[in-house]
Amino acid sequence: MPPDRDRPPTPRNQRLERLNALRGPAALLVVLYHVRQIALRDLGSAGTFEFWRFGHAGVDLFFVISGFVIYLVHRHDIGQPAATRRFLTRRFIRVYPPLWIVTTGVLIGALITAHAVHAEKMNSWFILRSYLLWPINGALPLVPPAWTLSHELKFYILFALAIALPSRVWKPLLATVFAASVVACVVETVAPTALPFAISFLFSPYNLEFVVGSAIAAFVLTRAVAVPATWGAIGLVMWAIAAAHDQSLVAPDVAEVFSYGLPSALIVLAVAVQDLRRPSFHAPLLRLLGDASYAIYLVHLPVIIVSIRLGKQMHIEPDTGTLLVIALIATAAGVLFHIVLERPVTRYLTGRFAAKPRTSATLVAVGK
Q: By CB neighbour count within 10 A (0-12 exposed, 13-18 middle, 19+ buried), where does 226 fall?
């Protein structure tokens, strides 16, 4: 009997190597963006690094990938209340310990050097909120890129509801959140400052990127996708068009979701389908950067700030070569942090507090 060509491939495990590797370029985009941003702020010029003004879009790619991976790894937990505690524990371990290590380092550095991102807000409440990832209106946390993690945690909590609650409850609840996020998009497009901060955060347009990522995962796991490379190419072209017209230091949420979220979704779709069809993937450097992407994301900005300040004191010109070296140093610092601290700490805590029960049917599940 001939094979069913309309049947989607089944993942051999719950780690798609190409999709995981895609986190590496997403992290590098953010690194290059912040090198540009800090060079502009501290040196008055970013030279050719002005090209990377669109690098903030790496965040949108991260959000779509997160939605995909969480659904892929935990889809069988949906409707299984007993799995809620383990899901939340794994997410806590994955996010907080590395964040706390970096936040503590930044805090110590800020106290010693009297430099802080928001020195006027450096009080106990601000510091606590930076550690907890509690959203801060009008300020970034001690580790500035960690503002995105508040949105990640919100998505984890919403997904946990799908695990803990019966479908008759969580489906209309999450549909309401989705609809409210769409309405918030419309409102913020017409009047960007009309919504209170709490409402703007809870129903952020970024919610849509997590949902789209999960929807893509559900789709490719149950249906065959025709010409995935074409969809990926369309996504890259859309991304390039958005990047060419990106003139802002920080894109508004709504504009960013539409400009980069949709292209990111098409790219994730294409990469995921390729992963499912051809699981074998041999690219050690990309795999390492993908594995270390969270560490790079946490560590890179403090390293960039320190490097550029040292360069300024040494009267080094902010030319392309210098800024590229700074980007490489920041990336290498993240990889080193991943190898030395993040990976062993996460593995130990996961094994100690959130190990999956061993059964003959256990799959290799690697969290985000």
A: exposed
Q: What amino acid is encoded at 280 in this protein?
A: S
What does the angle CA 215 – CA 297 – CA 112 come to, to the nearest 5 degrees?
A: 145
- The Cα–Cα gap between 273 and 114 comes to 49
pTM given for the model: 0.91
Query: For 175, phi and psi rounded to 5 degrees?
Result: -65, -35
Q: Please state, in angstroms and rounded to a whole number, the distance separating the CA atoms of residues 313 and 350.
A: 43
Q: Distance (Å, rounded) from C-alpha 293 to C-alpha 300?
A: 10
pLDDT at 11: 65
Q: According to DSSP H, which parts of 82-145 are helical?
A: 84-113, 124-132
pLDDT tens per residue across span 188-205: 877 777 789 999 899 999
DSSP 205-260: THHHHHHHHHHHHHHHTTS--S-HHHHHHHHHHHHHHHHHT---SS--HHHHIIII
Where does the chain have alpha helices with state H?
Answer: 17-43, 58-74, 84-113, 124-132, 147-164, 167-190, 197-202, 206-220, 228-244, 253-256, 262-277, 284-291, 293-313, 320-337, 343-353
